[in-house]
Amino acid sequence: MPIHIELVTQEKKIFEELEADMIIVPAAEGEMGVLPNHAPILTTMTFGELIVRKGNAEERFAIYGGVVDIRPDKVVVLADTADSSFALDLEQAQEARARAQKMLEEGVPEAENREAQLALRRAQLAIKVSNKMRNSGSMLRILDEDE
Questions:
Q1: 65 shares its domain with 106
Q2: What's the CA gap between 2 and 36, in Å, rounded?
Q3: Beta strand 3-8 with 74-79: parallel, antiparallel or unpaired?
Q4: Domain that holds residue 48
Q5: Which residues contact 39 (CB under 8 A, 6 or more apart)?
Q6: What is the mean pLDDT of each run of 10 residues along the chain (147 residues)?
Q7: What is the pTM of this model?
């Protein structure tokens, strides 16, 4: 029995797969693997990587916080923001990381310091997810019906 997953942000539905085999969630308590018939759980997510597996195919997402509702037959990820690994621009993420590091090194007012730290965390996660996809050349992308 497969598991249905929906990944949604405030703006739109990012991804949906009706028959995933496994989902790995960046829960606030740590990475959590979800298989069909999982016990119901509602938990928060931290910055991390969401992985959806179906057979030999895999889709990865950079998740920047949110909530996940896990039921025996369905997982609904309500992400603050999320990016597909295939939509991430490695060069752009590296530039964002460099800008954020420069701001933190130069010293900025407290309000801007928090934003710079957040930008640095986002860029580092985007780089990590992008590099994992580039290095896993054997993985395939799960296509949704619009593609």
A1: no
A2: 6
A3: parallel
A4: 3-86
A5: 70, 72
A6: 93 92 94 95 93 88 93 95 76 76 74 73 76 59 48
A7: 0.74
